[in-house]
Structure formats: C-alpha cells, structure tokens
Amino acid sequence: MKICITGGAGFIGSHIAEECVKKGYEVIVFDNFSTGKKENLSFVKNFPGSSLKIVKGDVADYKAVSKAVKGCNAIFHEAAVASVQKSIENPPATFESNAKGTLNVLEASRNNGVTKVIFACSAAIFGDHPEIPKREDSPVLPKSPYGADKYISEVYLRLYNELYNLTTVSLRYFNVFGPRQDPSSPYSGVISIFTTRIAQGKDITVFGDGKQYRDFIFVKDVVQANMLALEKIHSGFHYYNVGYGKATDLNMLISILQKIYQKEITVNYTDARPGDIKESVTDPSKIIKELGFTPGYSVEEGLRILVESLQ
Ligand code: NAD
Ligand code: UD1
Predict the structure, then answer these.
(1) In terms of DSSP H, where are the helices of 90-235?
(2) Predicted structure pTM score
(3) Ligand 1 centre distance from Cα of residue 82 (Å)
(4) Is 205 helix (H, G, I), strand (E, B) or coil?
(5) Interval 22-69: pLDDT, tens
C-alpha cells in the first residue's frame, strides 16, 4: 500500500507516518516544514528497509500536490496551520493552507486515481454552541477562521464523495497531545507549552479563569482512529468526533501536572483570548461503535508518557 501523509513532518502526521512505516506501507511525507521538522521522522532509522520519501511542498500549490500523490492508494491529510489564534491574526493566509489546501488534496486525488482521503478535521467546527457533549450531529458554529476552514473542508469531502465517488473520512480531532508537539510558539498546544515550561522551572500563563475545558486525547489514540479509518472504510463519506470523552479544565490539568512533577507551579491568570472556545468535550460512541475505536490513554496516563519522553 502506498500512502501520502500531508503535514507528515508535524506532530500528529509524524506519528501516523511512524505507524504506516511499522505496517510496511510505502510512505510519502508531503510538508512545507513551516512547523514540521525532519527530526520528527528520525524514527525511520529503527525500521531498516522501510520506504519513506520526503517531498517538500505546499498544499496550496496544486501542481506540487498532484505530482506527490500520483500512484498513492490513500492520503492522510494533516497539513494545516494548526493554531486557532494564528487564523484570527491572518485569515487569508490560513485559508490558503487550511481550505484551499484541502480542496487541492481532493482534486489531486480525483485526478490521480487515489481512492481514499482521511482528513484531520477539528472540534473547532462546533465553536461555542451550548450543546454538550458534542456528538457528530451537534450544530456546527465555528468561532474562528480556523474552525470555518475546517468545516468548509469537511463539506468538500462530502461533495467529492457524492460527485466523484472518492471515499472520504473526516476525523474531527479534539485536543491532541503527546511527544513531538512543538512548544516553541505562544500559539502552540497548551499541554506542550505547560510541560516544557514546568520542566524548565518557569511559570505558566492561563488565558481566562482556567475553567475552560477540553477533551484531551493522547496522540497514539488519534493514530488508532486514523488506522481504523484506513482499514475499515472502503466507500462513502464518513465523519467522526475523535476524543477520549472526558472534560478536563485547565485548573484540573495544572493539578495533574503538579502531581506528576511533584513541584509547585507558578500560575499567572490573564485575559481570555478572542475566539477561544469555553467548553469542548465529545461523546465518542459513534467511532467506538462503528469502527471499534478503543481509546487507551487517560489524560494522566498520556501526560506521564509525555513528561517521561521530555526528560
Ligand atoms: P503541526 O503544526 O505539528 O503539523 C502540521 C504540519 O503541516 C506541519 O508539519 C507543517 O509544516 C505542515 N504544513 C502546514 N501548512 C502546510 C502547507 N500549506 N503545506 C504543506 N504542509 C504544511 O500540527 P498538528 O497538531 O500535528 O496538526 C495536524 C493536523 O491536525 C492539522 O490539520 C490540525 O489542524 C489538525 N488538528 C490538530 C489538533 C491538535 O490538538 N493538535 C486538533 C484538531 C485538529
Ligand atoms: C487546539 C488545537 C487546534 C485544534 C483544536 C481542537 C493547537 C495549537 N491547537 O486548539 O489545532 O483544532 O484544539 O479542539 O494544537 N492556553 C492557556 N495558556 C497557554 C496556551 C493556551 O491558557 O499558554 C489556553 C487557551 O487559551 C485555550 C486552551 O488553553 O483556552 C487550549 O488552547 P490550545 O492548546 O491552543 O487549543 P485550542 O485553541 O483548543
């Protein structure tokens, strides 16, 4: 099986790439290295004889995508500007990667005989609509350009199935965490920022009162969801919420980290960020029932693995 992973040098994409290499698939990583890194792919040295090719390119460039996906059976489309806050600063730039990029991946699939696209969608499509927990049919109400781009991408996934019979799967990830998540930007994922700063003995900042909550899911569980979509879905358009199914607010998260690090953490509270969602948690029954998804890591278990990997 030949697989292309857009954004494969990033946090989640590199874990998907690792699993594909482990399974003996031929892998092409397509990435513009805006946040991705070659060292995220260094696992490949543990798999002698494996096939992993890196192509530097941008998903906003149709020709480059089309060339890279030729001969592939399936695509995991992970490439995107992953930050909600960056999308608020520059909606058109984010649109290029996050909406146009998805359309290019779908169009390149249709024109090059790729049969399946599995897309990294997001819980951000739900915004602050009060229905909680989020189910697959919960109302969609994006609160940021990022959420809007992810939603329009999902609409295109449905259309490319209906119009051109491409098999498409939208996995709406909730808040993913784990090793290789880049902590270096102020807009990085909260767990990567907190764990890195605490390990360095630095203080941390909470935007708002810390009562905003998320459904944090360990990256290995997200890889499992992707592999199930690859192996079990062979036709149609499907969409699933991918979370662990438990709400953890930032104050609870800090208490767990305090327990793991066994040290006092200095926490500064400041104003909430615009576009920030307050409550986000899913009921993952649909993916559990239909694909046999079995999330295996609680937030605390995942955090312990992450903290160990940082030491
Ligand atoms: P990441 O920034 O580590 O990975 C994104 C990768 O895409 C990087 O390697 C980056 O260099 C690449 N990329 C960005 N723009 C590109 C472009 N225009 N062309 C080619 N490559 C490009 O982020 P991540 O957390 O691994 O996110 C992966 C995917 O999952 C993204 O689509 C993101 O929106 C989605 N997602 C992430 C989370 C989360 O909690 N991390 C939750 C929901 C959805
Ligand atoms: C995250 C992902 C996004 C994904 C979405 C799905 C990243 C960078 N963002 O967005 O790709 O689609 O989940 O739900 O991976 N916070 C602090 N202090 C900090 C950093 C953040 O208090 O130093 C707060 C934020 O204001 C927010 C919460 O922590 O309230 C989570 O923020 P963040 O990790 O950026 O995630 P989301 O915005 O939920």
Answers:
(1) 91-95, 101-112, 145-164, 190-199, 219-232
(2) 0.98
(3) 5
(4) strand
(5) 999 999 999 999 999 999 999 999 999 999 999 999 999 999 999 999
Q: How confident is the model at residue 129 (pLDDT cuts 50, 70, 90)?
A: very high
Query: Does any ligand 1 atom lie closer than 6 A to the CB of residue 35?
Result: yes
Q: In a 10 Å sphere around its CB, with 0-12 CB exposed, 13-18 middle and 19+ buried, how is residue 234 labelled? A: exposed
Backbone angles phi, psi at 166, to 5 degrees: -75, 135
Do the bridges between strand 167-173 and strand 213-214 make them parallel or antiparallel, or are there none, so unpaired? unpaired
End-to-end, the C-alpha distance of the chain in Å comes to 36
Q: Using an 8 Å Cβ cutoff, are 237 and 32 in contact?
A: no
- CA torsion sign, 86 to 92 to 98 to 99? positive
Give the closest ligand to the alpha carbon of residue 12: 1
* Helix spans in the chain (H): 11-22, 62-69, 84-89, 91-95, 101-112, 145-164, 190-199, 219-232, 250-261, 285-291, 299-310
* Residue whose entry in the numeric block shows the structure tokens 């890195």: 196
Tell me which residue has tokens 């990435």.
31
Please name the residue whose Cα sits nearest to atom 32 of ligand 2. Answer: 190
Would you state the structure tokens that stand for residue 193, as one six-digit string? 């920022």
Cβ 47 under 6 angstroms from ligand 1? no
Per the CB < 8 A criterion, the answer to whether 253 and 191 are in contact is yes
C-alpha torsion angle, residues 298, 301, 302, 303 (rounded to 10): 120
Q: Which bound ligand lies closest to the C-alpha atom of 105?
A: 1
